[in-house]
Amino acid sequence: MTETHHAPLPDEYPSSRQPTSSTYSRYKKFVLPLIGLFTLVLAYTTNVAKPVSNSTFHVPASPQCKKPQAYRPSFNKSVNLILNDKQFKIDSIKKLSGAIQIPTEINDTNPLPDDDLEYYSEFFKLHKYFEETFPLVHSHLKVEKVNQLGLIYTWEGTDPSLKPILFMAHQDVVPVNREIWDSWQYPPFSGYYEQETDYVWGRGSNDCKNLMLAELEGIEQLLTDGYRTKRTVILSMGFDEESSGFMGAKALAPFLLERYGPDSMFSIIDEGAGLLRLDKNLYIAAAVNAEKGYVDVRIAVHGHGGHSSVQPDHTTIGVASELIFMMENHPFEYDFSLDNPIYDVLQCAAEHSSFLPPHVREAILKAPVDESKRKVLTEFAASHPDIRDLIRTTRAIDVINGGVKANALPGLTSFIVNHRVDIHSSVNETIENDLYWARVIAEKHGYGLTFHDEVIIPETKLGHISLASEKMLEPAPVSPTAGHVWEIFAGTVQNLFQNEILAEQKDADVYVTGGLFSGNTDTKYYWGLSRNIYRFVAGIFPFDQLRTIHSVNEHISASSHVSAVAFVYEYIVNVNEYGHD
């Protein structure tokens, strides 16, 4: 039976705090699409800008990037069925296609479910579809709803002393622009399967109804096989991840935290990267174990208006434009620290592949012991637009408003600056950089300056510049890529792909590393539940698929989808068999 819970919504992102005047004073002494790991590797494989050095470089005899021990479950009744049976694949495609056909679109601004249930009618259709499609899941697992739409499935284990495994996904999808509907190769909510290419087409096929269906289908198959789990397995499915999860994950995570307590989950698996094929025989499974932080800063130039025939030296639009110009022309500094998870990916590529220029491979592998080589590596990464933002804080001016009439001076001009905070920086440091440039412009043009309610420079006869921070999120804790929990996760991935999916490709090599996202998933609300958070979908994703996420012609290969089902199946069994708390 489904239970409904009305959980309170927290006011802010986790680990957020306002900067203070003292932090600003300290700063004065030091004068701040799905992008992420996928675009990193894409840039290396398709757009190596620097020339190949004439020098040669030999890979060390003892590589640091090594294959993890493969964990093969003793209970694997249906793994071969999932991966190789034609009828299973057909049925799996139908299940995914049916979910895609339910357009659970979510906008940037949405009503509370309690205020407008009709607005979310497609989500209730999806819930009904789950009940019909996965009967064993709904007869054996406890189903609860939080804030009407958030779903929690609980498969109770026989040993309550063991930490549960938590799988995540989100029910919502990015809206489809109706003006370019006809640009889609197949209708965006058709869930069409193209046998010639093995692609399933449609919005949500790759973000992330594929993961949601894989989790449900993997458990359904385990139940079909009569499997009994010792360790409790939980599915937590938000409904507004594409608008930051303010009503879904933001309520689901505290609900679980109250029930199970801090650090209560063995591991958390959510949407993220998959396997990347770097060259003919090299595959890297990049499990994203870190995410950058986030903060929006709303900046406004307050003036006094007037008739445009009496022209000031600079209108508020002009002052705001100069501040924007200064910010864009003084970006945050690059810092390629070797504990950045993307270094692990590059290290594997440098040691086991030849597509990188020799001087770059040398820089990657010698960076830990040679500061000059680390500088070469930083310069190389900074020269690629798709890579550089993973080694610095970013600042993008995304919204601007000013003026109401051609013959009236604008009394107010405002804009919003979106930042993705480097893993070694902080929200405070980021805001302080904005404050620094705002002060430069305020002092140059004779304006006051405020931050929230704090007056930094008193208002002048011209007006003042105000800054306010919103939606603050510190960089995510970096999950370990060593130790018992990681070994089971990586070992499951290694076994599934090296020994099963790619077994016939005799010279294929699979390596498992961490990775970094510049965006944020719903896991931002779940930090308190586990230090072992891995954002990973167990599929091999060609770059043409990655480019369509949030865009026209989103699609996924059916083979990648069934491999994700197999991973859920194997991982649950492996954690039960090999895991200890």
From TrEMBL:
User: According to its UniProt record, which cofactors does this protein need?
Assistant: Zn(2+)
Q: Does the keyword Oxidoreductase apply?
A: no
The keyword Transmembrane belongs to this UniProt entry's keyword annotation? yes
Residue numbers binding Zn(2+) 1: D207, E242, H550
Please name the catalytic residues of this protein: D172, E241
Give the residue ranges for region: Disordered.
Answer: 1-20
GO BP? proteolysis involved in protein catabolic process
- Which residue range or ranges hold the Peptidase M20 dimerisation domain? 290-431
Going by the UniProt record, its keywords in alphabetical order are:
Carboxypeptidase, Glycoprotein, Hydrolase, Isopeptide bond, Membrane, Metal-binding, Protease, Transmembrane, Transmembrane helix, Ubl conjugation, Zinc
Mode of membrane association: Single-pass membrane protein
Under Gene3D superfamilies, the record lists: 1.10.150.900, 3.30.70.360, Zn peptidases
Which InterPro entries does this one have? ArgE/DapE_CS, Bact_exopeptidase_dim_dom, Pept_M20_carboxypep, Pept_M20A, Peptidase_M20, Peptidase_M20_dimer
Q: Which domain of life is it from?
A: Eukaryota
Q: Which residues cross the membrane?
A: 30-49
Q: Where is this protein found? A: Membrane
Question: Where is Zn(2+) 2 annotated to bind?
Answer: H170, D207, D270
GO molecular-function term, one example from the UniProt record: metallocarboxypeptidase activity
Q: Which family does the record assign?
A: Belongs to the peptidase M20A family.
For this protein, the record's PANTHER family field holds: N-FATTY-ACYL-AMINO ACID SYNTHASE/HYDROLASE PM20D1, N-FATTY-ACYL-AMINO ACID SYNTHASE_HYDROLASE PM20D1
Full protein name: M20 family metallopeptidase
